[in-house]
Request: fold
Amino acid sequence: QVQLVESGGGLAQPGGSLRLSCVASGLSRSKKGMGWFRQAPGKEREFLAARSWTGAGFGSPDSVKGRFSISRDNDRNTGDLQMNSLKPEDTAIYYCAVGRGGRRWRDYADWGQGTQVTVSS
Reply:
Protein backbone atom coordinates (compact mmCIF):
# COMPACT_ATOMS: atom_id res chain seq x y z
CA GLN A 1 0.00 0.00 0.00
CA VAL A 2 1.22 3.47 -0.89
CA GLN A 3 1.37 5.86 2.05
CA LEU A 4 2.22 9.57 2.06
CA VAL A 5 2.90 11.79 5.06
CA GLU A 6 3.23 15.59 4.86
CA SER A 7 4.95 17.75 7.45
CA GLY A 8 6.20 21.30 7.90
CA GLY A 9 2.95 23.23 7.98
CA GLY A 10 2.17 25.91 10.52
CA LEU A 11 1.85 29.65 10.96
CA ALA A 12 3.80 32.12 8.86
CA GLN A 13 3.72 35.88 8.47
CA PRO A 14 3.06 37.57 5.13
CA GLY A 15 6.30 37.64 3.15
CA GLY A 16 7.68 34.68 5.05
CA SER A 17 8.59 31.18 3.91
CA LEU A 18 7.73 27.59 4.71
CA ARG A 19 9.08 24.30 3.45
CA LEU A 20 6.77 21.30 3.36
CA SER A 21 8.02 17.74 3.11
CA CYS A 22 6.37 14.56 1.90
CA VAL A 23 7.60 11.07 2.71
CA ALA A 24 6.25 8.21 0.63
CA SER A 25 6.34 4.46 1.09
CA GLY A 26 5.33 1.60 -1.17
CA LEU A 27 6.77 3.15 -4.35
CA SER A 28 9.64 0.74 -4.94
CA ARG A 29 8.34 -0.35 -8.37
CA SER A 30 5.70 2.25 -9.22
CA LYS A 31 7.73 5.15 -10.72
CA LYS A 32 4.82 7.52 -10.29
CA GLY A 33 4.59 11.28 -10.46
CA MET A 34 4.34 13.43 -7.34
CA GLY A 35 2.18 16.52 -7.12
CA TRP A 36 1.21 19.20 -4.60
CA PHE A 37 -2.27 20.64 -4.15
CA ARG A 38 -4.06 22.88 -1.69
CA GLN A 39 -7.63 23.49 -0.66
CA ALA A 40 -9.01 26.48 1.21
CA PRO A 41 -12.44 26.53 2.89
CA GLY A 42 -15.19 26.97 0.33
CA LYS A 43 -12.83 26.66 -2.63
CA GLU A 44 -11.94 23.90 -5.05
CA ARG A 45 -8.76 21.90 -4.79
CA GLU A 46 -5.99 23.80 -6.56
CA PHE A 47 -2.98 22.41 -8.37
CA LEU A 48 0.35 23.86 -7.28
CA ALA A 49 3.19 21.91 -8.88
CA ALA A 50 4.22 18.41 -9.90
CA ARG A 51 7.14 16.37 -11.15
CA SER A 52 7.28 13.06 -12.94
CA TRP A 53 9.46 10.18 -11.79
CA THR A 54 12.20 11.43 -14.10
CA GLY A 55 11.95 14.99 -12.81
CA ALA A 56 9.97 16.58 -15.62
CA GLY A 57 7.92 19.47 -14.28
CA PHE A 58 4.40 20.70 -14.87
CA GLY A 59 3.81 24.44 -14.87
CA SER A 60 2.33 26.11 -11.82
CA PRO A 61 -0.68 28.44 -11.89
CA ASP A 62 -0.19 32.19 -11.81
CA SER A 63 -1.29 32.32 -8.18
CA VAL A 64 1.94 30.66 -7.03
CA LYS A 65 4.25 30.84 -10.04
CA GLY A 66 7.62 32.28 -9.11
CA ARG A 67 6.96 31.83 -5.38
CA PHE A 68 6.55 28.06 -5.00
CA SER A 69 8.91 25.35 -6.19
CA ILE A 70 9.20 21.61 -5.68
CA SER A 71 11.85 18.94 -5.66
CA ARG A 72 11.90 15.19 -5.18
CA ASP A 73 14.40 12.53 -4.26
CA ASN A 74 13.50 9.17 -5.76
CA ASP A 75 16.14 7.32 -3.75
CA ARG A 76 14.60 8.49 -0.46
CA ASN A 77 11.01 8.61 -1.76
CA THR A 78 10.61 12.17 -0.55
CA GLY A 79 9.45 15.46 -2.01
CA ASP A 80 9.53 19.08 -0.85
CA LEU A 81 7.43 22.14 -1.52
CA GLN A 82 9.27 25.41 -0.92
CA MET A 83 6.95 28.38 -0.43
CA ASN A 84 8.32 31.92 -0.46
CA SER A 85 6.75 35.38 -0.29
CA LEU A 86 3.70 33.96 1.42
CA LYS A 87 0.40 35.81 1.26
CA PRO A 88 -2.73 35.53 3.41
CA GLU A 89 -4.54 33.95 0.46
CA ASP A 90 -2.08 31.06 0.62
CA THR A 91 -3.86 29.88 3.77
CA ALA A 92 -5.12 26.36 3.06
CA ILE A 93 -4.59 22.69 3.71
CA TYR A 94 -1.70 21.44 1.59
CA TYR A 95 -1.50 17.92 0.21
CA CYS A 96 1.07 15.82 -1.57
CA ALA A 97 -0.12 13.10 -3.92
CA VAL A 98 1.27 10.33 -6.10
CA GLY A 99 -0.20 9.09 -9.35
CA ARG A 100 -0.08 9.54 -13.09
CA GLY A 101 1.10 13.12 -12.71
CA GLY A 102 -0.05 16.34 -14.31
CA ARG A 103 -2.26 19.18 -13.10
CA ARG A 104 -5.54 17.35 -12.48
CA TRP A 105 -6.20 16.02 -8.99
CA ARG A 106 -8.23 13.12 -10.39
CA ASP A 107 -5.06 11.72 -11.95
CA TYR A 108 -3.60 11.05 -8.50
CA ALA A 109 -4.63 7.87 -6.74
CA ASP A 110 -2.80 8.25 -3.42
CA TRP A 111 -2.88 11.23 -1.07
CA GLY A 112 -1.35 12.33 2.18
CA GLN A 113 -3.40 13.48 5.15
CA GLY A 114 -2.68 17.16 4.50
CA THR A 115 -0.96 19.83 6.58
CA GLN A 116 -2.41 23.21 7.53
CA VAL A 117 -0.66 26.39 6.41
CA THR A 118 -1.88 29.68 7.88
CA VAL A 119 -0.48 33.03 6.75
CA SER A 120 -1.39 36.02 8.92
CA SER A 121 0.18 38.80 10.95
Notes: The mean pLDDT is 95. The chain is about 0% helix and 50% strand.
